[in-house]
Here is the input.
Amino acid sequence: MQVTGAQALVLSLERQGVDVVFGLPGGAILPAYDPLRSSSLRHVLVRHEQGAGHAAEGYAWATGRVGVCMATSGPGATNLVTALADAYMDSVPIVAITGQVPTAMIGTDAFQESDITGITGPVTKHNELVTEPGRISAAIAEAFHIASTGRPGPVLVDLPKDVLQARLAWSWPPVMDLPGYRVPGPPDPGLIAAAARLLHQARRPVLYVGGGVIKSGSHEPLNALAELARSPVVTTLMARGAFPDSHPLALGMPGMHGMYAAVTALQEADLVVALGARFDDRVTGRLADFAPRAKVVHFDIDPAEIGKNRAADVAVIGDLRTALAGFTEAMRGLVASDGPTDTADWVELTAGWKRSFPLRYTQRDDGPLKPQHVVERLSALTGGDAIVVAGVGQHQMHAAQHYAFTRPRSWINSGGLGTMGFAVPAAMGAQMGRPDELVVAIDGDGCFQMTAQELATCAIEGLPIKVLIFNNGFLGMVRQWQELFYEERYSEVHLGTAIPDYVKLAEAYGCVGLRCETAGDVDAVLDKALAVTGVPAVVDFRTHDAEGVFPMVPAGRANDDIVLGPEFSAAEQQAAARREVIAR
Ligand SMILES: Cc1ncc(C[n+]2csc(CCOP(=O)(O)OP(=O)(O)O)c2C)c(N)n1
Here is the structure.
């Protein structure tokens, strides 16, 4: 069958099982938009290409499938760069398709020409400028294969206009030609056995669970392993939901704004078992002082992560789900032959820390509305069952800390790049991918204003996402750092709470707009927002402008220097420093 390059592109996307493409057309990509009209693909017309990129990410986070975005050449393509960098940092599988100027004009500074493969080289797992029409189907098949296998990530395919217009003989499936691309083989059973021996011998183990557990679908084997090893579990910002917060072995989130018990358990551990985690600086604090007494077992699909920040005593490379199944089996064997693990004192100690030094804030009935209170009420009213998407800043940390996650793929955020503006478009993508679920974006007023225009897209597409704006009138997280580290010299962080009027803005975008100013109204307003169907509901929560996020490990300091925050007395802070258990 003879088809155009554009038809080959659309047919290839259909064959890949794509159901939705987020994009915005322009000159160079125009040929592709014509066959799109009559295809089975649903195209969502975003208002800004960054929104298309984050929507593709949200879709991928929520579904585990590859998200797809499309843009024209030049500014359309460069508007995708932030989302590609974001997906690269957080290992999110997306495919970006960009138009390019005709091949004969490449390198001439033609109208809307940008070297997008050059620009995105460092922030994509792979990219390709397709110059042969006959390669289109192979390029698309390879893009999906690379994005979704091994350590997932973003792939960009750049298609010049004349390549999209050329005629070619269509055939599927294409032959993939990827001589330099290797997906790690099965994990080494000998190394898994060595890891199991270390875990069986450990008296103070911690399972340090990263985003790889969710991406590889390993939450069930993780549960079995934790219970068998009787080991406390910490879930990083990327892994919230991988292990239920209600589980007695769950210590919550480690890191800069982690729970005391999670942070301190890592510091005192004799064995850290890293599962699809990358020893990010936000988790380790000052690296030289991280988990100083621990041996390290590191499971990862990406060999480049092994020893990158922290040397591993045993490293297991390969698919985590397979590795965890083997690891659990090996542990079962050791428990059967040598008896159960001896961690009871440790589990009791870490649980004592959890009770002694919990997350703490005070919500007075007549006092300012606390963001933590809103998150806790949302958590209670939704039974921990919502898909929660966050922006970047204090609200993100409050959401990660206070929402009681019960299942994987229910928490979506920008962990590595920390991209303000992520929440609304990512929630749009998540809702497209999981249409029957409740999707709630928790956003800061600063973040919201970066990509709020995608509310129009959501309203037109009939997506009933909930957007909870934590309107503290400040770039709150930056304000907090200026308060703590620049002697309260506030510089360029005040936004103001009244402009824009978020209720009117929501209504202007065809959404339902609500406002909540007091703690007593939170449940009623949330109930109203949750009841909205067919269009987004946006709530302007007027939250306390001076609220901080605690605990906190100051940047560049050791995790041992964790600050519990103003809700704790000096005596409690000293007890925490001494690792005491002070409450039963
Ligand atoms: C695109 C981008 N620009 C700047 C920053 C730096 N930054 C991190 S958090 C933050 C403040 C976010 O403010 P807001 O959205 O109001 O959330 P809050 O911290 O008040 O909850 C800023 C400016 C960033 N992460 N991303």
